[in-house]
Amino acid sequence: MIENILAHKAEIIEMVMGIIVVASVVVAGTKTPDPDSWLGKAYKIIEWASLTFGKAKQTGEKPVEKIEVEVVKGKTEKVEESK
Predict the structure, then answer these.
(1) Where do the structural domains in the chain lie, given as residue ranges?
(2) pLDDT in tens, 18-49
(3) SS3 letters for 2-65?
(4) Is the dihedral of CA 49, 23, 58, 44 positive or negative?
(5) Does the pLDDT value for residue 74 go beyond 70?
(6) Side-chain half-sphere exposure of 4, counting CA atoms within 13 A
(7) Opening angle at CA 70, ends 66 and 74, nearest 5
(8) CA-CA-CA-CA torsion sign (67, 70, 72, 76)
């Protein structure tokens, strides 16, 4: 088995590099889906295959905004609101 891998190492490297290139093109050309959907979960696998790690791409998560809400007449308090 090792001999077979060593005999075809050039083809194996080409295949791995091809997967990385195709996954990178998909990640760069699409908008990041919601991470909780099935498409978002599949997208994480594609991002991993494209070697996109860290903050190299947006996450698709919605930012949390703080708004002021009147709690008692005359007092306001900041609370988090997700859109």
Answers:
(1) 2-82
(2) 999 999 999 888 888 888 899 989 998 999 99
(3) HHHHHHCHHHHHHHHHHHHHHHHHHHHHCCCCCCCCHHHHHHHHHHHHCCCCCCCCCCCCCCEE
(4) negative
(5) no
(6) 1
(7) 130
(8) positive
